[in-house]
Write a structure and sequence with these properties.
alpha/beta, 25% helix, 14 strands, five-stranded mixed sheet
């Protein structure tokens, strides 16, 4: 697969988001790892909310469901180490989401004297430098979460501060507001919206599933979907194509293969 992409001058990216460690789904994570190990993408994007930062949330929390922050960080590091072991040569980018931003918000409100000290950032706590993972943070100096993204050709891959209750409406609203093709985390579901303008310009917006549990204690039967997206981009151009992949009973098809927790066939 790698040789084929090189010969055809295409690069492949896998984009996954909203793990919300420690509320991630280990089975869904394992299924993603099997796909990464088989396909060996050139780029892997963790598109926000990899960590939940439950213990420092400003929302009321049920103490019976507590998750120590240190345990959350250690669990996140284990998963990131597995990703890097599976993809030793791939570029890995971690986009800061609104849940990672909780750490900055906490320091600003509760411990401003400690803000900016070495070791007290998501990048330092997860040891991203040693793992060779690039952290795309919200701009320095921001005191609240705002849109955060990277670009892959003409496609903007990011964690925008916008979520609608109904699938597809977030993508639609973002297309209207931003005027670019985009792949959005944050909504925990899948939705697509497309535009074609009078000048022939084509845009697409995709809401990119989630990798967290679908039975969280804090929401009753949410209409979420697990999965990720594969993006192909023609090298030296902005052209791209998105292949959304949804998990159904921890199985999915890609190309001529079926992936499951048992492997691929």
């Amino acid at each position: 697969m790698k040789t084929t992409r090189t010969k055809t001058k295409y690069e492949m990216a896998v984009v996954a988001n909203d793990f919300h460690v420690p509320f991630h789904d280990p089975k869904a994570t394992k299924l993603l790892e099997k796909f990464l190990a088989d396909q060996k993408p050139d780029l892997f994007v963790i598109n926000g909310d990899f960590l939940d930062m439950w213990e420092i949330s400003q929302f009321d929390r049920n103490p019976k469901f507590g998750r120590p922050l240190l345990g959350e960080i250690e669990e996140g590091k284990k998963i990131l180490k597995r990703f890097r072991k599976i993809l030793p040569k791939a570029k890995i980018i971690y986009v800061e989401g609104n849940h990672e931003f909780r750490l900055r918000k906490y320091l600003i409100r509760k411990a401003p004297e400690l803000y900016g000290l070495p070791g007290l950032s998501i990048s330092d706590l997860l040891d991203l430098k040693n793992l060779g993972i690039t952290y795309k943070a919200v701009k320095e100096g921001a005191n609240k979460f705002s849109d955060n993204w990277i670009k892959m050709g003409y496609l903007y891959i990011g964690h925008w501060d916008k979520a609608n209750k109904h699938a597809g409406y977030t993508a639609k609203n973002l297309l209207d507001e931003k005027g670019v093709s985009l792949l959005q985390g944050h909504t925990h579901r899948h939705g697509v919206s497309a535009r074609r303008y009078v000048d022939g310009k084509e845009l697409i917006g995709v809401e990119n599933f989630c990798m967290c549990r679908l039975d969280p204690y804090y929401v009753s039967k949410p209409s979420w979907s697990q999965g990720f997206s594969v993006v192909y981009r023609k090298k030296n151009t902005g052209r791209f194509h998105i292949y959304p992949i949804i998990f159904v009973e921890y199985k999915f098809f890609f190309g001529n293969k079926e992936y499951s927790l048992k492997g691929k066939t």
